[in-house]
Amino acid sequence: MGKAQLDRGEGAPALATFEKALALQPDHPDAKLNLANACLLMDQPERARQLATAVLEAERSSAPAFYVAGVASLHLRDYTNAIQFLQQARDIDIRVNAVSLQLGPGLRGAGEVRGGAGAV
Questions:
Q1: Is the distance from CB of 85 to CB of 70 less than 8 angstroms?
Q2: Which sign does the torsion angle of CA 38, 40, 43, 46 carry?
Q3: How many CB atoms within 10 Å of residue 26?
Q4: What letter would DSSP give residue 33?
Q5: Can you give the three-state secondary structure of 67-95, one letter per residue?
Q6: Where do the domains of the chain lie?
Q7: Close Cβ partners of 115 (under 8 Å, ≥ 6 residues apart)
Q8: 58-108: per-residue pLDDT in tens?
Q9: Residue 115 confidence (pLDDT) above 70
Q10: What pLDDT sits at residue 112?
């Protein structure tokens, strides 16, 4: 139900669904990641990153958790961490095209912060 809500862009219902799921299974990594995705949809990137990094504490090889943490970091304009998270996701699973698509904005943002696109 919650995944379908996410797919339809229904952030608030998805958030409520995954919060209930996480309350029932507080250590379940999928519940945390799904809630993190709902948080991104609802413009709550700090919470999304916290949830994704909590998954990474238990599962250091979770490409989806690195990806969500990276996207959340992009939303927070934390380009250094965004690049690190996204590169980790890509290193774990190079087949995920979305990672490469998100790395571009991260690298551009880091260049702007450092003083120009050529600085990266």
A1: yes
A2: positive
A3: 10
A4: H
A5: HHHHHHHHHCCCHHHHHHHHHHHHHHCCC
A6: 2-119
A7: none
A8: 999 999 999 999 999 999 999 999 999 999 999 998 887 777 778 777 778
A9: no
A10: 66
User: In this predicted model, what pLDDT tens digit does every residue of 13-72 receive, in sequence order?
Assistant: 999 999 999 999 999 999 999 999 999 999 999 999 999 999 999 999 999 999 999 999
Question: Which residue's structure tokens are 């890509």?
Answer: 90
Q: Residues near 59 by Cβ (< 8 Å), separated by ≥ 6?
A: 29, 65
State how far the alpha carbon of 1 is from the alpha carbons of 48, 73, 90, 112, 117, in Å.
20, 27, 29, 40, 43
CATH of domain 2-119: 1.25.40.10
CB 35 within 8 A of CB 19: yes
Measured distance CA(1)–CA(13) in Å, rounded: 9
CB 51 within 8 A of CB 42: no
